[in-house]
UniProtKB/TrEMBL annotation:
Residues 18-328 form the Amine oxidase domain. Probable oxidoreductase that may play a role as regulator of mitochondrial function. GO terms for molecular function: oxidoreductase activity. GO terms for cellular component: cytosol. Interacts with COX5B; this interaction may contribute to localize PYROXD2 to the inner face of the inner mitochondrial membrane. This is Pyridine nucleotide-disulfide oxidoreductase domain-containing protein 2. InterPro entries: Amino_oxidase, FAD/NAD-bd_sf.
Length: 556
């Protein structure tokens, strides 16, 4: 570390990506500090204590992709209290007519469920999962690689050549490319005949924040295959336990995490990052600053406007960030919701995982179309979770009920404010659940927290309330995320790096962006050291030559 600097590395934001990045750098010997605006770590996957000790997730509640990155083993996070619980069945999809499906980790068991509504779709589902499992092995290999076409191709090929051969044996390369470029609504409609299968899979894909008709989003439906191969999990003690374990790991390696410390500006001198300043006017110095805040906020708000050329600023301003997300309600309940479809069945495993109230794919698409023009969805799709069933420690002697309804716009049409609309929106959401559940509103009226799109945008620093920090469309993925010029985590400002959901490979609880950013920084450090050593030799030789020349002159 430079003697005149406070730290080797400053990380802005203690979301899981920022903490992952900090951990890898601390593991390599860097002196690291993480500065977090909020009083807890975890960002949009944090867990907070509310209502006198109940542990409630403020955002993401289930984890799948993190298990594909190697991070948990690399950092030995189990030593710091991280324990994952399997959700199985991982999804339950009831319908207003009394039909329902359970999706189990076991593929054959799930196909038996689907066979009850469509034998043809049961066969198609098995093929769909097997097909995408092979493709996902290749795609997930690119998650932890530098986002460039050559490095991704090498990583994919070296990771699983067998999967590649199986994949191309089933379909031609042309078919594969066509499949990846289509929208997930079309993919599901081409693959399945029954709405009972299409609708829940579409709703799961919609968690990426894009509509079923958005081109190049087929892979969001394809990720579903990971639920069978990897499984759907959540940390015991709440979603935030991942970030809490990362925090403990970092501290154990000598790193620091400072909460309630909001960075308001990144300090730059001579086109180089030299530190940050906080809202309390405190300054921290370092040659390396990493921002896990959304790229648009980092580069358009935290640095001086003159630090970037006009052309690059225009490109950053043009990053697509759809102002559409959802409304969440978190409540304490004395009883679990009673689903009409299962009646008084003794089998209660439908409470284990995600409960998907989305009757049709076309209805989901209609909701996105309505939200795009600022209207509330006429019938919102509703995602429920009852995490205390699998983890009673979250709500002793009671239950947690999580509700996520979508899609809802950040700005309502006609000048209506969210303050005025919230009560009606909550009523709409409970009305939408009444086709499936008897009296849900009566179960959780006493203790509940509601967050609308503007509140999500403010509380969690989500640009335009977008949980992905930027649309996950084909032109903003891989080596084009957030834009090609910034896709390698580096910025034109020396020492300033980006990480987080707005960078490759995107959002979701996975941590790959943080891991990748750390690898890029360590590579840059190594490269700098290789240049410094010869420079010191040259400098030393020059000094020695000057001394000898002076001695010669003096002797004359």
């Amino acid at each position: 570390m430079s003697r005149d600097k406070d730290y080797d590395v400053i990380v802005i934001g203690a979301g899981h990506n920022g903490l992952v990045c900090a951990n890898y750098l601390a593991k390599a010997g860097c002196k690291v500090v993480v500065l977090e605006r909020r009083p807890v770590v975890g960002g949009a996957s944090a867990t907070e204590e509310m209502f006198g000790g109940y542990k409630i997730d403020v955002g993401s509640a289930v984890h799948t992709l993190i298990h594909e990155t190697g991070i948990i083993d690399d950092l030995k996070l189990e030593k710091f209290g991280l324990k994952y619980l399997q959700l199985d069945p991982f999804a339950f999809a009831p319908f207003p007519d009394g039909t329902y499906l359970r999706f189990y980790r076991d593929l054959d068991k799930t196909c038996e469920e689907i066979e009850k509504v469509s034998p043809k779709d049961a066969e198609a589902y098995k093929k769909f999962v097997e097909d995408w499992t092979e493709l996902n092995r290749i795609l997930t290999a690119t998650f932890t690689s530098k986002p460039s076409a050559p490095s991704m191709s090498y990583k994919a090929l070296s990771k699983d050549i067998v999967s590649l051969l199986k994949m191309t044996a089933r379909r031609s390369l042309q078919d594969r490319i066509h499949q990846l470029l289509m929208d997930y609504g079309k993919l599901l409609s081409m693959t399945f005949e029954s709405e009972y299968v299409k609708a829940p899979l579409a709703f799961l894909a919609a968690q990426a924040g894009v509509s079923p008709s958005t081109p190049g989003t087929a892979n969001f439906a394809g990720w579903h295959a990971l639920s069978h191969s990897t499984g759907v999990t959540r940390p015991q003690g709440g979603s935030g336990k991942l970030s809490e374990a990362l925090q403990e790991s970092l501290i154990n390696m000598g790193g620091e995490v400072r909460l309630d410390t909001e960075v308001t500006s990144i300090l730059i001198r001579n086109d180089r990052a030299i530190g940050v300043e906080t809202s309390s006017r405190e300054k921290f110095s370092s040659d390396i600053v990493i921002s896990s805040v959304a790229p648009v906020k980092t580069l358009l708000e935290l640095i001086p406007s003159e630090a970037l050329n006009d052309n690059l600023r225009r490109k950053i301003s043009s990053i697509k960030i759809s102002p559409i997300s959802g409304v969440y309600i978190r409540g304490i309940a004395t009883n679990l919701p009673e689903y009409k479809a299962v009646g008084g069945s003794d089998n209660k495993d439908h409470y284990m995982g995600m409960q998907l109230l989305c009757p049709t794919l076309s209805g989901l698409e209609k909701g996105f179309q309505e939200a795009t023009i600022g209207n509330k969805p006429s019938k919102p799709a509703v995602y429920l979770l009852t995490p205390s069933v699998v983890d009673p420690s979250l709500a002793p002697e009671k239950h947690l009920v999580y509700i996520w309804a979508q899609p809802y716009p950040l700005q309502l049409a006609g000048g209506q404010s969210w303050d005025d609309a919230t009560q009606d929106v909550v009523a709409d959401i409970f009305n939408a659940t009444s086709e499936y559940i008897e009296g849900l509103v009566d179960i959780i009226t006493k203790h509940r927290v509601i967050r609308t799109p503007p509140q999500l945008a403010g509380d969690l620093q989500l640009p335009y309330s977008n949980i992905m920090h930027g649309d996950m469309t084909i032109d903003q993925l891989f080596f084009m995320r957030p834009i090609p010029e910034l896709s390698g985590y580096r910025t034109p400002i020396k020492g300033l790096y980006l990480t987080g959901a707005g960078t490759h490979p995107g959002g979701g609880v996975q941590g790959a962006a943080g891991k990748n950013t750390a690898e890029v920084i360590l590579a840059d450090m190594t490269k700098a050291k290789r240049w410094i050593k010869p420079a010191l030799v040259v400098a030393g030789s020059s000094i020695a030559f000057a001394v000898l020349r002076r001695s010669a002159r003096a002797s004359n």
